[in-house]
Design goal:
alpha/beta; Rossmann fold; 16 helices; 37% helix; globular; disordered C terminus
Length: 435
């Protein structure tokens, strides 16, 4: 099947082919015809499978084919969770719309709003935005949602994770009830289905891969290593293998900064990307990484969500995520569009349960390796993964207790308290003072 067979116009097909694509991906094949028919879509696919073009191309065709007043009211809105993803989608829209008379723009926080306001005043057909800045611009009367024909929520699961649901609902309240809604997500969680039920009208469900699956050409490697040895081991991996382009994930912003500093001290070019960095610094770091000016990009989960780095060979989990689904999103940065990739995880004793939960999600055992000179000696107990309830995790821990003896139950009501015990008022058990 070709892009023409999907019903796309010659102008759009020409732009797509100039980007080097001749055949649509499975998600594009399934979603584009339904979107062209004006139907609402609830779509899920692995990262790196062409979701962006899956909604961009038919929306551009709708905008180009329908008449619009001279002042160009905003008619299509794409909401995304991060600035990097917004900028990336905007770049794709510009490339795909080069042969059609469509004006596009992107707005997000972290930069001066005045140039964005000026752009919007000149008229925009399709806007890509993050929820916070969009609400701010609406409050400033810089744009109106009264003529919105199409609303796209991209990476909807991450937007929920980041707490944007109230912003999304508020934005939708300003839009016409009659409109086309397209919701794209890496996963179909219960929260996503709940969000979809309040937004979509008789949606067509499109899914091209099992929920939370990973790209087939991505291989997984786990190295057991002490927490304090992870940095030295990472440096060894990069230097011994002469890696040229690696995306490394940490759980915290502080951890990303700390690792980046140590890599630079070791003579390895690196930059960090996370929420505390200015937008200018984030854009520069990503650009330098893409053009190979730096070898290593150290990122947190939120900052890296949606990053499109073609042919990225390696992703390293410096720290495993405590949310198993985040592992799928992380390694989705490699093995994109059918290319091969390698996902490497450094696991210390505290992260054993994280690995167990990831393996349950993937339905796959990740083979662990120990490297000479970095043999793990940590005895720190494992931490609870986000998917484990406190009760079940405690039960699991108790099951591992010596000789299998159950610990004595703590007294849970007053009658069980041993003689001479305090009443529990404060730390000293002193009687309650008169107030």
């Amino acid at each position: 099947m070709t892009f023409s067979d999907l019903g796309l116009s010659a102008a759009l097909v020409k732009a797509v082919e100039e980007k080097g694509y001749t055949k649509p991906s499975p998600i594009q094949e399934k979603a584009i015809p339904h979107i062209l028919e004006g139907k609402d879509i609830l779509a899920s696919a692995q990262t790196g499978t062409g979701k962006t073009a899956g909604f961009t191309l038919p929306v551009l065709q709708h905008l180009a084919a329908t008449k619009h007043p001279k002042y160009r009211p905003l008619r299509a809105l794409v909401l995304t969770p991060t600035r990097e993803l917004a900028a990336q989608i905007y770049d794709n829209i510009r490339e795909y719309s080069k042969y059609v008379n469509i004006k596009s723009a992107v707005v997000f926080g972290g930069v001066n709003a005045k140039p964005q306001i000026a752009t919007l005043k000149n008229g925009v057909d399709i806007l890509v935005a993050t929820p916070g800045r969009l609400l701010d611009l609406h409050d400033r009367k810089a744009l109106s949602f009264k003529r919105i024909d199409v609303l796209v929520l991209d990476e909807a699961d991450r937007m929920l994770d980041m707490g944007f649901v109230r912003d999304i609902n508020k934005l939708i309240s300003f839009m016409p009830v009659k409109r086309q809604n397209l919701l794209f997500s890496a996963t179909f969680s219960n929260d996503i289905k709940k969000l979809a039920s309040g937004i979509l009208n008789n949606p067509v469900s499109v899914e091209t891969a099992p929920q939370n699956s990973t790209a087939k050409k991505v291989t997984h490697k786990v190295f057991k290593v002490d927490k304090g040895q992870k940095t030295a081991f990472t440096i060894k991996l990069i230097k011994d293998n002469n890696w040229k382009q690696v995306l490394i994930f940490t759980r915290t912003k502080h951890g990303a900064n700390k690792l980046t500093e140590k890599l630079i001290k070791a003579g390895i070019t690196a930059a960090a990307i996370h929420g505390n960095k200015s937008q200018g610094a984030r854009t520069k770091a990503l650009k330098n990484f893409k053009d190979n000016s730096i070898k290593i990009l150290v990122a947190t989960d939120i900052a890296a969500r949606g990053l499109d780095i073609p042919l990225l060979p390696y992703v390293v989990n410096f720290e495993l995520p405590n949310v198993p689904e985040d592992y799928v999103h992380r390694i989705g940065r490699t093995g994109r569009a059918g290319a091969a990739g390698e996902a490497i995880s450094l696991v210390c004793s505290e992260e054993v349960e994280y690995q167990n939960e990831i393996e349950k999600l993937l339905k796959e055992k990740l083979k662990s390796t120990i490297v000479e000179g970095f043999e793990p000696t940590d005895t720190a107990p494992p931490k609870r993964a986000a998917t484990q309830s406190k009760g079940s995790f405690n039960k699991k821990s108790k099951a591992r207790s010596v000789n299998g003896n159950k610990p004595k139950k703590k007294p849970h009501f007053k009658g069980n308290k041993p003689a001479g015990s305090t009443s529990g008022r404060g730390r000293t058990g002193a009687p309650k003072k008169n107030r």
